[in-house]
Specification:
By secondary structure, this protein is of the alpha+beta class. It has two domains: about 5-85 and about 220-260, Conserved hypothetical protein from pyrococcus furiosus pfu- 392566-001, ParB domain, CATH 3.90.1530.10; about 90-200, Conserved hypothetical protein from pyrococcus furiosus pfu- 392566-001, domain 2, CATH 3.30.1760. It has helices spanning about 20-35, 55-65, 95-105, 120-125, 155-170, 180-190, 205-210, 235-240, 245-260; strands at about 5-10, 15, 35-40, 40-45, 50-55, 70-75, 85, 90, 110-115, 130-135, 140-145, 175-180, 195, 220-225, 235. A six-stranded antiparallel sheet has the order 9-11-10-13-8-12. A five-stranded mixed sheet has the order 1-6-4-5-2, sandwiched between helices. Strand 4 and strand 5 form a beta hairpin. The chain is elongated, with a radius of gyration of 21 Å.
Length: about 280
Amino acid sequence: MELPNLRIIPLSQTHIHELTLDKPARRIADLIAHSGLQRNPIIATEVDGEYIVIDGMHRFAALKRLNCRGIVACIVDYFDDSIELKGWYLSLDNLSSDELCAIIERTAPHLERQELPVAEAQKKMAERTASFGVLARGEGNVHVYTPKDGFDLERFINMDQAVLKEIQEHGITYRLVGDEPCEKILAADPLCVLLLLRPVYSKQEVVERALADKLFPPKSTRHVIPGRPLRLDIPLSILRSDLTAEQMDRILCEETRNRWKLQKIRHYPEPVFIYDE
């Protein structure tokens, strides 16, 4: 079994790729400050001496709030096939398909609407030949919205933000669900009466936009990462100290080496459910 590549990296050389939300960042900062520990590492990739956060945007924001100079990270090869980049759909339970379609048509009037079978609609989302899809429980087809002149990344990001903003301004609650087959989502979530389908970004777009500080909206990406390390519990006193990143890194290496000798590292190959505090 190969252990994760754990490092302490400088926050000053680390970039997020999504905007963060203030409330979750404050809540996580409070939890970290109370425990005095960074419990779980972020997941990051290294590009030309800089680091891009793949998973853990709000942990990064929380540690930045707490004036940390270093952050514990699991460094991965982002373009390895074992790391999957997926997306999020929205599950809504207090809105009709007509109402959601009206929101999309108000915010993105240039999109064309057509009715397609579920499998074909999801295929269009994956290929990015469609911008949105609306599926109501019990309906056989998806209301699919396609751009007349092809998919444009910047324009889609602006549309996505505008649609989400209008949903929130109307006081409509939603849950994020992974972009799995729609039948599977509806079977697993009896409360879901309506799904908003959205396309997936590419790894290259994630890297390029992160390095250019052009951030995606919050919760735009979902990553499936094998061998995710948890519960390292590294003291904030180290991450806030005047030590260099290299010196912090040596402390982390010694700590993980000691835990390996004491057989305090366990590996669970099966899926694991984490219940947040």
